[in-house]
Design a protein that fits this description.
Elements (H helix, E strand, L loop, with lengths): L14 H16 L13 E6 L5 H12 L3 E5 L12 H9 L4 E5 L3 H10 L4 E5 L5 H15 L6 E5 L4 H9 L6 E5 L8 H10 L7 E4 L2 H5 L4 E4 L11 H7 L7 H4 L7 E4 L21 H21 L2
C-alpha cells in the first residue's frame, strides 16, 4: 500500500497537486450530481475539534456525507488532546476505528504529533500556524471568478496570522503574487516569507510584506482581510484595535485596487474593525461564495487522500 498522506500545511501538496485539486473541485461542483459518485463509500472520518466552528464543521460533515462516507464528531470534551489522554494514544486508538482524522486544534505541534502517530491521513482543519483547507477554498473561489491563477496579485491587509501564512506559502507556488500589509510587530514571520519566495513559480512572482495598506492593494486583483484578534487572543482585543487603526478594508480602499478586484474574507467578520458593516455584501465581495466553497474544496481534498483520485 502507498504511504499515507497528511494535509497539515499547504506545502504538503505540490503546486501541481494544488492546481489539480482546485480544478477537480470546480469541475465536481459544476457537474450535475456533484460528479465522481461516492468515493468515500464504506469509509469513516473522525472530526476532532478542540475549538468552536461553524463553516469548518458543517462543510466537512456535509462533504463526507455527499462523498458517501460517515463522520464521527468529537468535541472539546472528547478531544482533550494531551489532557485526558496522550496525543499518541488518541492517534493510535482512532486509527483502528476510522479512515481519516480531521482535526481543528489550538496548537499546531499537537497536530504534528497526532499525524506522527496516526496510521491514517490527518487533515488540518485549523491550527494556530496554518489554515490550509481555507486556502484551497480561496484558490477555488479565485479560479472560478478569474478562470486562472497565473499572474494574479493578492493583497492581504491585517494580522500576519495562520490564514495569512497559508496564503503566503500557497499562492506564489501556483504563480500568484502575494503582498501583505500589517502594522509593525504584527507582520508575517521572516521564515514563512523566505519559504514562500523559495516556492515561487516563476522569476516574476513577487512576495512582499509592507506596512501601508494603500500601497499593498495598488495593482491587486484580490483584496483579502481577516480578524485582527483571532480565537484565543481575546485579551489582546483593545491593544490590537489601536494597533490596527487604519487597516480596515472598506469601499474606499477597494477603489485603490484593480478594477473588478475581488474582496475576500474567510469569516467570521468583526464589523467595525477589519471591515465596516455591509462590506461582505459589497458588489465586489465573494465572501459568501468563498465560505460555500469550503465544502467543494474539502471534498476534493478528502477524495484525493482517501480514494487516490
Amino acid at each position: 500500500m502507498p504511504a499515507k498522506r497528511d494535509f497539515l500545511s499547504v506545502t504538503d501538496f505540490t503546486p501541481e497537486e494544488t492546481r489539480s485539486l482546485v480544478k477537480r473541485a470546480r469541475d465536481a461542483k459544476s457537474s450535475s450530481g456533484g460528479g465522481g459518485g461516492k468515493p468515500l463509500a464504506g469509509k469513516t472520518v473522525a472530526i476532532l475539534f478542540d475549538k468552536p466552528s461553524l463553516r469548518t464543521r458543517v462543510s466537512f460533515q456535509v462533504g463526507i456525507h455527499e462523498l458517501g462516507g460517515y463522520s464521527v464528531f468529537l468535541g472539546p470534551q472528547e478531544a482533550d488532546l494531551g489532557g485526558r489522554e496522550p496525543v499518541a494514544d488518541v492517534a493510535n486508538v482512532l486509527s483502528g476505528y476510522v479512515d481519516c482524522i480531521v482535526a481543528r486544534v489550538s496548537n499546531h505541534d499537537v497536530l504534528v504529533e497526532l499525524a506522527q502517530h496516526a496510521s491514517v491521513p490527518v487533515v488540518n482543519a485549523l491550527s494556530d500556524l496554518e489554515h490550509p483547507c481555507q486556502i484551497m477554498a480561496d484558490l477555488l473561489t479565485i479560479y472560478e471568478h478569474k478562470d486562472t491563477l497565473d499572474g494574479l496579485s493578492l493583497a492581504y491587509v491585517g494580522d500576519g496570522n495562520n490564514v495569512a501564512r497559508s496564503l503566503c506559502l500557497a499562492l506564489p507556488a501556483v504563480g500568484m503574487n502575494f503582498t501583505s500589509a500589517s502594522p509593525q510587530g504584527y507582520n508575517l514571520d521572516d521564515a514563512s516569507v523566505r519559504k514562500a519566495r523559495e516556492r515561487a513559480n516563476g522569476a516574476s512572482v513577487r512576495v512582499r510584506t509592507l506596512t501601508d495598506p494603500v500601497e499593498a492593494v495598488a495593482g491587486a486583483d484580490v483584496v483579502y482581510t481577516d480578524v485582527w484578534a483571532s480565537m484565543g487572543q481575546e485579551s489582546e482585543t483593545e491593544v490590537r484595535r489601536s494597533a490596527f487603526a487604519g487597516y480596515t478594508v472598506d469601499p474606499e480602499l477597494m477603489e485603490r485596487a484593480n478594477a473588478g478586484a475581488l474582496f475576500m474574507h474567510d469569516m467570521p467578520a468583526h464589523y467595525g474593525e477589519e471591515v465596516p458593516p455591509g462590506m461582505l455584501e459589497h458588489p465586489q465581495s465573494v465572501a459568501f461564495r468563498q465560505a460555500h466553497n469550503r465544502l467543494h474544496a474539502q471534498k476534493a481534498i478528502l477524495e484525493f487522500l482517501l480514494a487516490g483520485n
